[in-house]
Amino acid sequence: MRLPFPERIPLSYVFVFAALLCTAQLLEGTPALFSLFSFLFIFISAITFNLAGGVTRLSGSYVLAFSLLGVIIGLTWKAILGEPADSHLDVPILTMGIYVGSICAMLAAVYISRKLTTKRALLGTLLKPANEQNATMGCIITGIAIIALDTAIPHSPGSFLSGLHQVDHFLPIAIILGVKHRIKKSGGTQSIDVPILLAITILFIIGVNGFTKEGMLEPLLCWLVAASSMRYRVSGFQILFGGLVVLLFFYYLVPYSQYGRTFASESSPDNLATSVSLLSNPENTRSQYLQSSEEQAAEGIAEYFDKPQGFFDRLQMISIDDRLNNLTNNGHVFGLYPVWADFENTVPHFIWKSKPRIWWQTMFAQEIGGLLPVEDTTTGISFTPAAVGFHLAGWTGVLIVAPILWIMLFTMFDSLCGDVRKVPWGLLMIPIFAHQAPEAGFDGIIYLLGFGSFGIIVVAFAAAYLMPIVGTFALGPESTLLDRASSVRSIPRRLPTAGPRENSI
What we know:
Helix 4 crosses helix 13, helix 4 packs parallel to helix 16 and helix 7 packs antiparallel against helix 8. The protein starts with 10 loop residues before the first helix and ends in a 30-residue tail after the last helix. It has a domain of 210 residues. By secondary structure, the protein is an all-alpha fold.
């Protein structure tokens, strides 16, 4: 089986899925209007995804992450559990109406951004195929060096190391470059070698030590997007092994991450000791996590399902968005100042040394009440851009402010990266978009417009021009070039175009 990298989703399949889901919702006691909004959201999401060019474009990856991880998975799992889709929500019709309005606004943003996007990717042809192997090794060496410096040398905001941390994507890009190179060099028979495995292991350990699900998943996602972009053929055994890895991740590592972060400190050695202690008895860690989840559910802390569902609790934003929408609906409209403040925050620390850092979404959670202790002003609470837009400016935020930001985001990154199957830096951004799109509100969009775009440009030029030199010191000059005439069974002879096809929407 070849790994998919879809340019579009057949709308007939989407229609059938959405219709079946809505039928299940109605049978489970969900109000008809809520089910109608669910259907519209799913169907318009598919249209928007197809118009963007699917996952071949970063705008399409953003649409997919926002719709799936924010709404669709939560609705689907709710139906599988046999629970009314509107249960445990304060303003369910309003919340789903906001989602429908947001996906319509995103559709308009995709349409307009396609008119503004450059025809050729600005970062498209930087790295020569002959330099891929040495660039991979150079990125690994540089990534390890930055981690060592970051750990050994104390630094403050605005310092050189702090700035370097903002653009440190060297290990993830090493995985992507290495996987693509290995697939091409092996004729599609292999995707991993020792340097790639080293980068994967280091990234995974960093994620474990930081108690972050995103960090632990990042190396797997980097391998997946690189291999999928090459249409890599996987065997039945590989599929079974991958499924087992995902199952173990859900069963043990998600509880470890959620429970362990309550003991996290700023000291890496302390976190390492905590990690070893918790992972030495993973069953006990899982039990402690489930107990704490049940206590939160008993307190009514933004739970969507009748009982805690582990990782599925994090694969939806409906319940937390609903709490914020209810607050806004009761007259607590915040105003648009956070948008301006987030753009101000893109000014580097070394220029604006007294730059304040305000955690807006934490402040929104404090407004809601009951989600955080009053004294906690730094714990991250996530809301979708849909809920944040509504909270800042009502329907104006949903239908005007949000699409303006999306137009800027889609135009910038689609212009920089184009068809990500041909541009490794675009593949690098897919896992980042997958995290930012459903959870980071407007903060995430503006961060990507500022530090995110700067970081990808720095990494692209460094990987193309500096990292091959660094890698040469370790490997020597690359001895052979890829045989252009050799057959590579993992790569189709002709890649489909990334633009919209007739009847695709």
